[in-house]
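Dear H.,

Thanks for agreeing to be a second pair of eyes. The structure we're designing against is below in token form, covering all 839 positions.
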């Protein structure tokens, strides 16, 4: 507001005093008083003057709270009543001119309605708000208008007609005005830029941590990366700041985008995320300061000269139509505010210029107390990835020499002792411990240094060392894992290191958990032990498993028919691991899981039943069952299926055995191992959880045979079984029969040999292709039902029946050794004769 009267009269003795002199003096004093209010206090609504409707949908009353404000010409408007109820209105007539230019257009006064209390009901042209047309208040705002109405006092009496002058009646009127006649106030709008989290959801994410960060920085939202969105917001704030601080410069921001173009290998990439988080926090601190009203020096008197807009009635919370208070610099200390804004913006520039990650190994490992979760970046310790020159620009309240009191990884010889050695002093004010200087160092160095720091300073912190080769299900058990450049007090700092390769035992990155993990991690040593993987055929054939899904138990007399109807049941008779007996139990595999997962489903259920045992898995390529165990351990698992013939098998590292005639009969799948140590449940739990060795449960490469497949297969092989065997195989069988007779049956029938298996049931494949003559579809059905490819020729399976217990398998195999040159593997099984004789 500018002064309108720049002179006032000076009275002299015997001077003729006119009305002009008195009015000039009044005008000058009134002008000065209003200038004082507007320029030294401020303009707008100071307090109160809030409006509300009794029923927003169909209002019958408008409530106006007490309050006051100052117009832009310095007039003081006040509403003294605690809660004024306005229940009526009337439209101002054409001849009721307020003589107020802001409410006129080409000398035509806007349509205005005066709001009245209940006392005015019954007056002419006064209507109740309850009877107003629907939506009457929707497009209107409530304003307080100061009316200055001059009235003549020239009233003659019979005895005196002297001129009595005139007076100005000052009245505050409550009016309604259409919103389109007002200028809406648009508040400063700067976007919030929330920083997305980096998700490490699978073991592969930790093993490829660099790529996870690169994907994060490359990810776009509305065609912009996180860095681009932040840069746009900072530049937008710079545009507003430039109006307040003309000499401000933002040239340093041009290099920000380029620094997030990463080469193929960027071991320190996690610190770029920290840097982006710092910049985001710095921007929000600047935004908060900028969003506060900047003091107005000499406000424009034409803004709202003799009125105050209290707000739109439809949405009283909308600040667009409300005369906001613009404080005077005398109250708001404008220069201090401008200095704060300059500091906060220039800090962002310095953070860009001073970002500097030292080479690995060139800096010591340190722990620095800090704060986590605080809104202001200046409350936190200065990270190591900035140059120490940033220190004076870190905290607006501690500039120049006071910056020596800012905690930082960087040493300053001039700082006081509690800053140089903060871990020796009270930590109550700090809820976070920054840990820096470990990435790129050897695991032994880091474990030693961190252990000494934590022990010597009695820090409430756990450290966990995690190998990239031993992640296992760690993320499933600790889904809150994230990088924080340290850890909360009473939290866990997780050090990720390379478990193998040229960077074995090199620290790669770090993460944190908000709680402590106290158990000792065996992974740092276990990840390097030998683990054997043994491959076995499953004791029940795929054909048998397929039939289980289609067997009807409704009329069965089996004791467990309800269980068997829905499950494939494996009975664990004995489970011995490094001399330790685990609990025998039955393991049920739901039939639907078996159909979908086959051996994978069996392995999965077995691992669930024995989480501290060997790892069971499935080799999809070779359709084999896998067992993984420590190479210097021994195991023996005796088991069998509850359905079918209930034969008992033993799986060991030396091979598979079958219980036959009261003794264990070896079945020729040897695996060599060495006994070295005792069984420990924790070690096998690690083996179960280890990313490299744990079960993968791949989906089968082929689906289970359908009922029609089984029917077609039976028809096909039955037809083949009715035909003579190839001449070469018949000759081989005759020679085998002859050598058995000559050895054991000279004085009578002692050993009876029976051909069993594919050569009897018609599913055989000769090693001589010309002898096969496969029917159409044979190859596909054989692989689908038996799991054997057409290139795998059939073995010669012999069932040996004898009552002479002195004859064993090795004796029979010895006399048949000459026939191994035939190219067919000969398998000997002792048992009752229950198949077609070929003699």
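And this is the sequence the design step returned. I haven't edited it by hand at all.
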């Amino acid at each position: 507001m500018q002064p309108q009267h720049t002179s006032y009269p000076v009275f002299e003795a015997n001077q003729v005093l006119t009305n002009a002199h008195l009015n000039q003096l009044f005008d000058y004093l009134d002008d000065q008083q209003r200038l004082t209010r507007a320029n030294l206090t401020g303009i707008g609504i100071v307090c109160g003057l809030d409006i509300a409707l009794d029923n927003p949908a169909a209002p019958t009353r408008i409530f106006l709270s007490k309050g006051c404000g100052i117009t832009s010409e310095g007039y003081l408007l006040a509403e003294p009543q605690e809660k004024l109820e306005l229940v009526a209105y009337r439209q101002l007539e054409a001849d009721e001119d307020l003589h107020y230019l802001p409410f006129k257009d080409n000398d035509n006064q806007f349509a205005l309605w005066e709001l009245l209390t209940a006392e005015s009901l019954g007056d002419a042209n006064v209507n109740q708000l309850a009877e107003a047309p629907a939506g009457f208040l929707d497009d209107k705002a409530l304003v307080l208008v100061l009316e200055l109405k001059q009235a003549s006092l020239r009233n003659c009496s019979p005895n005196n007609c002297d001129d009595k002058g005139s007076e100005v009646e000052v009245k505050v009127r409550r009016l309604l005005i259409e919103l389109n006649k007002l200028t809406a106030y648009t508040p400063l709008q700067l976007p919030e830029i929330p920083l997305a989290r980096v998700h490490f959801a699978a073991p592969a994410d930790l093993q490829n941590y660099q790529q996870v960060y690169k994907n994060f920085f490359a990810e776009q939202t509305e065609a912009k990366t996180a860095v681009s969105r932040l840069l746009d917001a900072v530049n937008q704030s710079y545009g507003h700041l430039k109006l307040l601080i003309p000499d401000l410069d933002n040239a340093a921001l041009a290099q920000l985008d380029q620094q997030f173009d990463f080469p193929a290998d960027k071991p320190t990439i996690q610190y770029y995320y920290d840097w982006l988080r710092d910049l985001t926090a710095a921007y929000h601190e600047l935004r908060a300061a900028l969003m506060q009203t900047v003091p107005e020096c000499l406000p424009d008197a034409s803004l709202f000269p003799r009125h105050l807009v209290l707000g739109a009635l439809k949405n009283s919370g909308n600040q667009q139509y409300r005369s906001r208070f613009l404080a005077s610099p005398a109250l708001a200390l404008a220069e201090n505010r401008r200095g704060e804004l300059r500091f906060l913006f220039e800090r962002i520039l310095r953070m860009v210029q001073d970002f500097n990650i030292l080479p690995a190994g060139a800096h010591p490992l340190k722990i620095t107390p800090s704060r986590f979760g605080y809104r202001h970046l200046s409350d936190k310790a200065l990270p190591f990835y900035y140059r120490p020159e940033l220190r004076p620009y870190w905290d607006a309240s501690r500039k120049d020499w006071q910056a020596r009191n800012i905690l930082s990884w960087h040493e300053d010889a001039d700082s006081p002792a509690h800053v140089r050695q903060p871990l020796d002093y009270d930590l109550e004010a700090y809820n976070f411990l920054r840990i820096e200087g470990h990435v790129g160092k050897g695991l032994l160095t880091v474990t030693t240094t961190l252990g000494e720091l934590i022990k010597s300073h009695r820090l409430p912190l756990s450290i966990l060392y995690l190998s990239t080769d031993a992640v296992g299900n760690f993320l499933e058990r600790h889904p809150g894992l994230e990088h924080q450049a340290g850890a909360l007090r009473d939290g866990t700092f997780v050090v990720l290191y390379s478990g193998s390769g040229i960077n074995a035992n090199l620290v790669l990155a770090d993460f944190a958990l908000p709680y402590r993990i106290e158990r000792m991690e065996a992974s740092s040593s276990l990840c390097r032990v030998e683990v054997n993987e043994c491959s076995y055929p499953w004791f029940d054939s795929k054909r048998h498993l397929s039939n289980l899904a289609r067997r009807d138990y409704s009329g069965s007399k089996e004791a467990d028919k309800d269980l068997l109807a829905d499950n494939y049941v494996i009975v664990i008779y004995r489970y011995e691991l490094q001399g330790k007996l685990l609990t025998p139990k039955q393991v049920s595999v739901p039939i639907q899981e078996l159909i979908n997962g086959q051996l994978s489903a069996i392995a999965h259920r077995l691992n669930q039943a024995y989480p501290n045992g060997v790892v069971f898995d499935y080799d999809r390529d070779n359709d084999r069952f896998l067992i993984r165990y420590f190479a210097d351990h021994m195991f023996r698992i005796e088991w069998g299926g509850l359905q079918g013939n209930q034969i008992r098998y033993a799986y060991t590292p030396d091979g598979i055995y079958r219980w036959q005639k009261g003794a264990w009969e070896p079945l020729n799948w040897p695996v060599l191992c060495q006994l070295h140590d005792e069984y420990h449940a924790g070690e096998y739990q690690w083996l179960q959880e280890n990313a490299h060795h744990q079960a993968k449960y791949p989906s089968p490469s082929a689906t289970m045979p359908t009922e029609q497949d089984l029917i077609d297969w039976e028809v096909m092989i039955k037809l083949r079984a009715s035909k003579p065997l190839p001449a070469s195989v018949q000759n081989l069988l005759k020679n085998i029969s002859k050598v058995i007779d000559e050895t054991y049956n000279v004085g009578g029938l002692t050993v009876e040999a029976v051909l069993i298996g594919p050569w009897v049931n018609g599913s055989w494949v000769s090693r001589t292709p010309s002898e096969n003559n496969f029917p159409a579809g044979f190859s596909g059905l054989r692989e689908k039902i038996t799991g054997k490819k057409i290139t795998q020729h059939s073995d010669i399976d012999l069932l040996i029946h004898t009552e002479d217990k002195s004859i064993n398998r090795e004796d029979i195999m010895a006399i048949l050794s000459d026939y191994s040159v035939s190219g067919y593997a000969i398998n000997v099984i002792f048992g009752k004769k229950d198949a077609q004789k070929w003699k």
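Two observations from my side: The chain has 21 helices and 34 strands. Residues 19-41 form the longest helix (23 residues).

Warmly,
E.
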